[in-house]
Amino acid sequence: MEADNLRIVWSKDDDVTVIDEKRIIQNPKDNSLIIRSVKETDAGLYSCVATNGLDFIKAFARLKVRAKIRIEPSPSNLVMKKGEDAQFMCGATTDSIEVNNPHIIWGKDLEVIDINEDIIEVNMMSQTSLLIIWNVTRNDAGRYMCLAINGLDIVNASALLTVKDGGTQPPVMLINPPTQVPFKELEAVVVPCKASGEPQPTYTWKKDKRDFNVAGSDDLISTVPNEGTLVFERPKKKDAGTYQCFANNSYGVAMSGIVELRHAFLMPYTNQEPETITVLPGASLVLLCNKPISYPEANVTWVLKHKDGSFKAFDFTERILMDHQANLIFTNVLEEDSYRDAAYVCVATNKFSRETTRGKPFYLKTIPTKPEWTKPKSIVTSVGSSVTFICNGTSKPPISKHMWYINGKRINEYPNKNKFIVQETNLTVINLTHQDSMTIQCNISNIHGYIFADAFLHVFGEY
User: Mind telling me which SUPFAM superfamilies this protein's record contains (predicted)?
Assistant: First the structure.
């Protein structure tokens, strides 16, 4: 088709009024159709017609819109006597016929229920699930959750089952708080406590071994209905302390373990002045992290900080590792460990309080070293013999070049080159004559410099 006369028209279910210039628009760059904030009514068959006045082509695409699941009906709270049968009903619906029927799973106290037909039965009726608990006991008391899944959405609803003995029972703790609960200032935190008992227990708390009045907290602290669980809506540092839950009825008292409510924090580094560490290649080195005090314990690692302010992680190896105090250990420093524009920095992160602090930057500088060597020795010999001069050295980084000079000239510039055999660190002179008395110089180097030494060859004998 002629591109200059080409016209693109979109329609839905043969209705050309699909474009509303607000939510459904045609992209002027590539003529694609853009639908913002998709609704269920947007589902349908879309067609794209391209025409130039002489001919046209047409293409189709179907849009399927999946609706979210709704729990209908939701399970209701139940109060049952011991020995009765409890039934929870939960239904899941969706407005889209394109979605598989929702699958319903039941759980109790945040764990999936193990179906045992002698005790618990689940009946599915269309999209409704009926959970039956036969002959309930006190152990069946708790919060039951209906979870509906269809591969797109997951929704849930829950209900509480309370079991009465028909007789009497002193309180028994069902849910104890952990020994420590961290909190971030002004972010809600929960300290759990729940007990069974007949009559139903009432709850009191102690803080730091003194009676704690939950009602006197200006609605910033509350308890979950029918439980002792404390909810701190906007906790402050003053709320930190040790707490203990007590469940009471007319037949006894049950108490929880002591829980410490602790303010989460990360002590920031105070000394962040850069420090340059000078070290010889091959030496070992320890960079101190001085791991900051943190609750809960901080995660610590090391990064490279560049002078432009950016950070880069690096992998620990058998040669560069971190010890149990978070210090960075170099078992064998290499020149490549030194960076001109980057420093090693210890970084501590408290994931709970979402705080990070960085220690002082360590700039690592390796000391340049010239080669060390075995110098060639002067030799006195006779006409007709051959001699070998040895020039060997070591350095870090390794020696990059050996150079030999004869009477001040490079060996490859010497007139009679056939008399010399060069094998890296060795120079052999063959078939000596009186004219071969000479000065020999060895020069070895690496990137940090070079060293040289002279040796003399004296040839004697009959002319």
Answer: Immunoglobulin
CA distance 441 to 449: 17
Tokens of 207: 């803080």
Mean pLDDT, residues 322-332 taken together: 93
Residues whose CB falls within 8 Å of the CB of residue 328, separated by 6 or more in sequence, listed in order: 286, 287, 289, 302, 320, 321, 322, 344, 346
C-alpha distances in angstroms, 297 versus 139, 259, 300, 351?
37, 18, 9, 9
* DSSP string covering 106-152: EEETTEE----TTTEEEEEETTEEEEEE-S--GGG-EEEEEEEE-SS
Q: Distance (Å, rounded) from C-alpha 90 to C-alpha 146?
A: 6
Closest CA to 427 of 453, 448, 450: 453
Sign (positive or negative) of CA dihedral 367, 368, 370, 371: positive
DSSP state of 417: G
Residue with tokens 């610590």: 300
Instruction: Phi first, then psi: give them for residue 214, nearest 5 degrees.
Output: -65, -35
* Tokens coding 378: 């002067």
**Residue 408 and residue 178: Cα distance in Å, rounded?**
84
The answer to whether 442 touches 453, Cβ cutoff 8 Å, is yes
Would you state the structure tokens that stand for residue 284, as one six-digit string? 């070992």
- Cα–Cα distance between 441 and 455 in angstroms, integer? 6
Name residues whose C-beta falls within 8 Å of residue 133's C-beta, 6 or more positions apart in sequence: 85, 86, 87, 119, 120, 140, 161
How far is 92 from 330, CA to CA, in rounded Å?
60
Phi/psi of residue 434, nearest 5 degrees:
-60, -35
Q: How many other CB atoms sit within 10 Å of the CB of residue 143?
A: 16
Q: Percent of the chain, pLDDT > 70?
A: 92
Tokens of 77: 């709270």
183 vs 27: CA distance, rounded Å = 49
Dihedral sign, CA of 205, 208, 209, 215? negative
- Helix (H) / strand (E) element for 171: namely strand 169-175
Per DSSP, 15 falls in state: B
Q: Tokens 């020039």 — which residue? A: 391
CA atoms of 344 and 326, how far apart (whole Å): 13
Q: What is the pLDDT of residues 166-202, one digit of tens each?
A: 667 899 999 989 999 999 999 999 999 999 888 889 9
Distance of CA 172 to the CA centre of its chain: 41
Q: How many CA atoms lie within 13 A of 446 on its CB side?
A: 15
Q: Is the pTM of this model over 0.70?
A: no
Cα separations in angstroms, 197 against 139, 166, 167: 11, 11, 10
